[in-house]
Amino acid sequence: MVRGKLQRLKGYINTETDSVQRIPKDGPDPEQEKTSSFPFSYEKKWYDFGFELHFYEGEYSLIRRKTYPVSSFHGSSAFSDLFHVHKQWQEEEEDHPLSLKGVDLEDLLFFDTETTGLSSGAGTTIFLMGYSRIKGDQVEIVQHFMPGPASEAAFFHGFLTDFSDTNQLVSYNGKAFDWPHLKSRHAFVRNEVPKLPLFGHYDLLHAARRLWKAELPSCRLSIVEEEKLNVKRVNETPGSLAPILYFEYLNHEDPEELLGIFKHHEWDVLSLIVLFSRISQRLLHMPHVQTTGREHLEMGKWFEQAKNSQQAEAHYVKALEYDGGIRQEAYVKLGHIYKKQKNPEKAREFFEKSLTGTGESKAAREAYEELAKLIEHQDKDYEKALVYTNLAIESEKKISRLLRSHKPKTEGLLKRKTRLEIKIEKWGDSQ
DNA sequence: CAATAATAGGAAAGCGCACC
DNA sequence: GGTGCGCTTTCCTATTATTG
Q: Which of A89, A107, A312, A405 is the least buried, fewest Cβ under 10 Å from its Cβ?
């Protein structure tokens, strides 16, 4: 039985080994199948689904191209938002991981694959890969389908002959999953097909995590879609069923059940477009995007890490408008920025402001310690510095009592305390 | 199930300031 | 003017979360 299956997969031209009863009742007439130029069963269905044959060195893959106007919506965003976002990125002075400065918008490939499993062992293959992209005033979706293991070269050939080396990938966890996977599968057919291009690669999983790690229960694409894009998926099959459905397809050749997977893949690559837009709109302070205080805070951190303190400051300042905990954190972050900018007076002002109102927190602990430092070295008011050091120690203790996971790190603070006590001992009060 | 990359936290190294 | 200490930056490591 298994042997028969393998043989069937190996060469579609060889219909001799296929028993008649294995062809489903509503399948094509076996007589016709032999003479037809279409190498698989269910020719009509494939055409109805919009797929075209791709022929390469005696093998075949299937390709579907589909377009929507850029004015159409996906969730609560229009694809055309990307135009504005792209334009806005050109205005930015400093670099950022998501920046599109100098990138041709139509070079972006919003890319995803469907595979026969998660493990990257030898048994797992890619059977569907493709992308969405902007083409003029249309969004184009290109899907390459591998109709069987014997078609991998044609499958890759169709995919690889379609774009240029200026293309850039945009994916969700593609850096860790899709691309390495694609590379390892490509190795099997590398002699027969073009080389893999060396892409620039934006991975939106990491962008999403940066913004929403604290806010969302998980940063899985489906959750992000629901919470941040208002995308409600209909008529699609979850990706987790892809392996089973593909194996079933290989048995009976009826693509009907794969329709939901094609839809799923389409949703994925379309969501990537609007996700890219949504995140960029927030990063660039573009209007009409509801942005939370937490998001501003996280974006501030992101810009800070990208060494763009101007944008970092802008987002932290925005975060000041939100509720207690957020505002407190933002004050502390701003304090650090001004401290780095050699403006200790302003730094101190912001650390102090962070302590008004809100109770114990890591931010408060941080502020106490920073104030102790500034007062010791600027004012040389050792008594007062000692007071803040003790407050920091108290704060640290309370936090570790509150958060079981947090192990107290008072070592540095205690060191500071004894040093200050010695100084006071030596010189009495602040001179 | 595997691979990957970002991140957080810690250790180590470089830098600047104060003190003698 | 040399020395030591505290502070910041950088480097390294372990952990975590996502993909079909």
A: A405
| Burial of A209 from C-beta contacts in 10 A (0-12 / 13-18 / 19+) | middle
Distance A289 CA to C8 C1' (A): 37
Nucleotide nearest to A174 (CA to C1'): C19
Q: Which range has the worst mean pLDDT, A18-32, A144-158, A263-277, A410-424?
A: A18-32
| pLDDT score of A12 more than 60 | no
Q: CB-based burial of residue A85 (10 Å sphere; 0-12 exposed, 13-18 middle, 19+ buried)?
A: buried
Which residues, at least 6 apart from A224, have a Cβ–Cβ distance to it below 8 Å? A208, A212, A216, A275
Does the CB of A305 fall within 7 Å of any strand B atom? yes
Token pair of A142, please? Answer: 């290109």
Quick: pLDDT tens for A374-394: 888 888 888 888 899 999 888
In this prediction the pTM is 0.88
A150: amino acid identity, one letter: A
H-helix or E-strand spanning residue A201: strand A200-203
Contact between the CB of A152 and strand B at under 7 Å? no
Angle, vertex CA A240, rays to CA A239 and CA A245, nearest 5 = 85
**A308 φ, ψ to 5°?**
-115, 80
Beta-bridged to residue A130, according to DSSP, are: A112, A143
pLDDT value at residue A395: 86
* CA separation for the pair A211, A224 (Å, rounded): 11
Residues A19-77 pLDDT 10s = 333 334 444 444 444 445 788 888 899 999 999 999 999 999 999 999 999 999 999 99
Task: Tell how strand A59-69 and strand A138-145 pair up.
Answer: antiparallel
Q: Is the pLDDT of residue A90 over 50?
A: yes
Q: Strands, DSSP E only, in A70-116? A: 73-74, 77-78, 108-115
Residue A118 contacts strand C, CB under 7 A: yes
Strand C within 7 A of A219 CB:
yes
